[in-house]
Design brief:
alpha+beta; single chain; six-stranded antiparallel β-sheet; 2 helices; globular; 19% helix
């Protein structure tokens, strides 16, 4: 069963949460795509995790307990001239979820198995 989540700040038109088997065969996966020109990667992570955990961002542990938000933003933001954006990603665990953030604007949150 696929649900369309409420729009988040800076999210492009597609944003889905997979409750069952999705078209990619993964369960418990939340995917979002952001425009780094309008939302910081660190903000995107917190917003996507809030949806994945069904919690308010203020009810979660702070992002800085896991990763430096300023470093994450600086590392992933591009000016459009970066040729390795598709290969550039940061992966970490937060709120019992695996979080993958790519320089392309993709944020993927997977539940622990």
């Amino acid at each position: 069963m696929q649900k369309t989540a409420p729009p988040l700040v800076g999210v492009r038109p597609w944003w889905t949460m997979t409750d069952g088997m999705g078209s990619d065969g993964e369960t418990g996966v939340v995917r979002a795509q952001f425009d780094w020109a309008s939302v910081a990667p660190s903000t995107a992570v917190v917003e996507t995790l809030a949806v994945a955990t069904d919690r308010e961002p203020t009810a979660m542990d702070p992002l800085y307990d896991v990763v430096d938000p300023d470093a994450l933003d600086a590392f992933l933001r591009t000016d459009g001239t970066r040729t390795d954006a598709a290969a550039t990603a940061v992966t970490f665990e937060m709120e019992r979820r695996e979080v993958v953030v790519r320089a392309t604007g993709d944020v993927v949150v997977r539940a622990e198995e």
